[in-house]
């Protein structure tokens, strides 16, 4: 019979990964919306980016524009700042999930938890 510790940690890992996935979807939608706004509002700056950044790595393109301060628009800055908490919380979710899986492995190997 499976140890209760393993059941709890697997559920924690599952919940943390689902949470991180949901945050990734929300961050992706928000980033896509901001990229479309930049493309419409600042076509020169957007066209100056490498085509792969514009097409495949829109988040990286937005980060480049933000770090270099190439778009001096308060709307762009506020929308880009609103994306950052999603990234931080997503990393925390993945770390919690990885930690729970690591505890399951350690518990199974060294602490005598049974599958």
Any chance you could write out the topology, listing elements then pairs?
Blueprint: H1 4-41, H2 43-48, H3 51-55, H4 58-67, H5 74-110
Helix pairs in contact: 1-4, 1-5
Tell me what you see in this structure:
- The chain is built from five helices and no strands.
- The protein is rod-shaped and about 65 Å long.
- It is mostly helical.
Biggest sheet record: none
Order of helices and strands: HHHHH
- Strand percent estimate: under 5%
Please state the average pLDDT score: 93
- Alpha-beta classification: mainly alpha
Q: What form results from the Cα inertia axes?
A: rod-shaped
Outline the low-pLDDT stretches.
Answer: none
Q: Count of DSSP helices?
A: 5
Helix % is: over 70%
What's the total number of strands? 0
Radius of gyration, rounded?
A: 20 Å
Task: Please give the alpha-carbon distance between the first and last residues.
Answer: 6 Å
Name the features:
115 residues; mainly alpha; 83% helix
Quick structural overview:
Helix content is 83%, strand content 0%.
